[in-house]
Write a structure and sequence with these properties.
The protein is of the alpha+beta class and about 240 residues long. The protein contains six helices and ten strands; from the N terminus they run ββαβββααββαββαβα.
């Protein structure tokens, strides 16, 4: 197996050549914030929270999709990156309708955690207050588009692990939103297996179980990890 050696925040790291900067950093215990990343599914670099600086490159690059290279020098915590990450989180809060005090994921939300990590306690940008629907047509689950950050975790976990492809992204730019089926109410999509993987994958309170109230949403991370391993090892056939 080919190995690459690089430095991340001054720490020497050796890792397989096909790995990403994010994987290299985590193997060395160096934290890089993420929102759209989810172990076991493909990377899309949607949130841009994991951007890092590489010596000799003018632009910032997403750590989740950038492969390591021999001799690469990576910085993950420069003032420029910290300012940029805070701006990203501020924009996510101002773009949606995120009211943590009444959210089912309050206290167990990756967006909330990211805000704490980057030191955000307010946003400099005007709130957009978009008029977004809540879909509770499914007998077990609900989808609150007001809390969606378009990370596409639900899309990828449904497609790549469950194989149902219930979710997708419609429109472009500021008009983007997650759709179920052929832009149908979730409860009308026959392809849905009601497995709940999208609920566990969602980093916010956008997808939730019916009956949950403020702060009650919990994710079963171990279930997702098992499903990925089971698929690779074909454990479900035993």
């Amino acid at each position: 197996m080919s190995v690459r050696t690089l430095t991340i925040d001054g720490v020497d790291v050796a890792i397989a050549a096909d790995q990403t900067i994010l994987q290299a950093a985590r193997s060395a215990g160096i934290p890089i914030p993420t929102l759209c990343h989810l172990d076991g599914v493909s990377e899309v670099a949607a949130c841009r929270l994991c951007l890092v600086e590489i010596t000799g490159m003018q632009k910032l690059v997403p750590a989740c999709v950038t492969r390591v290279a021999e001799g690469m020098e990576v910085q993950t915590q420069t003032p420029k990156l910290q300012d940029y990450r805070r701006m990203v989180v501020e924009l996510l809060f101002s773009e949606g309708n995120h009211v943590c005090a009444i959210c089912v994921a309050n206290g167990n939300c990756d967006l909330q955690d990211a805000a704490i990590e980057v030191g955000m306690d307010h946003t400099r940008f005007p709130y957009q207050f978009p008029d977004r629907p809540v879909d509770i047509s499914h007998p077990q689950f609900g989808m609150d588009h007001n809390r969606c950050i378009l990370c596409t975790r639900c899309v990828r976990v449904c497609d790549e692990i469950e194989g149902a492809h219930v979710w997708d992204v419609a429109q472009r730019g500021a008009n983007c939103y997650i759709v179920s089926g052929m832009n149908q109410p979730w409860g009308a999509v026959s392809a849905c297996t009601s497995c709940g993987k999208c609920v566990d994958a969602c980093p916010t309170g956008a997808i939730f179980r019916k009956g949950e109230t403020t702060g009650e949403k919990e994710r079963d991370r171990a279930k997702l990890n098992f499903l990925v391993t089971a698929r690779e090892k074909k454990e479900w056939t035993r």
